[in-house]
Design a protein that fits this description.
- The protein has one domain: TIM Barrel.
- The protein is built from 13 helices and eight strands.
- Helix content is 46%, strand content 15%.
- The radius of gyration is 20 Å and the shape is globular.
- It starts with a helix and ends with a helix.
- α4 links the parallel β2 and β3.
- It has an eight-stranded parallel beta barrel with strand order 1-2-3-4-5-6-7-8, surrounded by eight helices.
- By secondary structure, the chain is of the alpha/beta class.
Length: 276
């Protein structure tokens, strides 16, 4: 075998290279509801421990103190457990989005999208030309250079999950125009900031906030764009939102789930001790 043959780059994409984002989509297409958790801890062992019980992980690089190497560790851990890795970035900025996609994130949550122009900028940052303006330099998604060419570019553009976070009343007012932007994969509701934009911060279940969310759900269903929500870990509330039409749900965060487990066990043990 010659050196050229030994190191030849395969031109075709194999089944094992298929993006996990397709699994996320197929679940919703079949009427299932993908479930995930927001990851806020830096240690990728958290994702490794949780991801096998989930459809996706939402790696929070907006509010969490995460560098690119930390995000990469979480993405790799999610991929090893066959969970879709979605990263919420700090801002709608191609400089931020590009390296996160290059290291292997299957989807991007873009915060505080308020207008159709915001949506167009988000799509352009996530897609290669001619569909967008993303610079070419993938690492893990291209199997470190083993995959390339027009077929790879097209499949990457088709598979990337571009998720716009609707968390301002301006976005609710512009929702039909936002949904009309080609390339938008999904919306996700940010109910806390949405409540703040209505002068009701800390009241995500106020009737005005709930009415705004229900308007977004109805518009998304009409446009045939997926809609999800990042919510707490109260099972009753999660089931309520699914009944209202949410098609994927992030069920609280790693730290919230840890504290819920701790508080439940500690409370039960202390109650039994008081009865002794």
């Amino acid at each position: 075998m010659t050196r050229r043959t030994l190191f030849a780059m395969p031109a075709l994409l194999s089944a094992q290279d298929a993006p996990l984002a397709h699994r996320f989509r197929r679940k919703m297409e079949s009427g299932e509801v993908p479930l995930g958790v927001i990851i806020s801890f830096n240690d990728p062992a958290v994702t490794d421990a949780l991801a096998s019980a989930l459809d996706f992980v939402w790696i929070d690089a907006e509010h969490g103190a995460m560098s690119l190497p930390i995000i990469q560790g979480h993405v790799m851990a999610a991929r090893s457990r066959n969970a879709t890795a979605i990263v919420r970035v700090a801002w709608n900025d191609p400089v931020i989005i590009k390296p996160i996609l290059d290291l292997g994130a299957e989807g991007i949550v873009i915060p505080l999208v308020r207008t159709a122009e915001d949506a167009r900028r988000a799509v352009a940052a996530c897609k290669y030309p001619p569909d967008g303006e993303r610079g070419y330099g993938p690492r893990a998604p291209a199997n470190y250079g083993r995959l390339s060419g027009p077929e790879f570019v097209k499949r990457t553009n088709d598979s990337v999950l571009i998720i716009l976070q609707i968390e301002h009343i301006d976005a609710v007012g512009n929702i039909e125009k936002i949904l009309a932007v080609p390339g938008v994969s999904s919306l996700v509701i940010g109910s806390n900031d949405l409540s703040g934009s209505l002068g009701l911060l800390g009241q995500p279940r106020h009737p005005r906030v709930l009415a705004a969310i229900e308007r977004v759900i109805a518009a998304a269903h009409k446009a045939k764009v997926w809609v999800g929500i990042g919510i707490g870990n109260d099972a009753a509330v999660i089931k309520e939102w699914i009944a209202k039409g949410m098609q994927w749900v992030s069920m609280g965060s790693d730290v919230a789930l840890m504290l819920t487990g701790l508080n439940t066990v500690a409370r039960d043990v202390r109650e039994s001790l008081r009865k002794r």
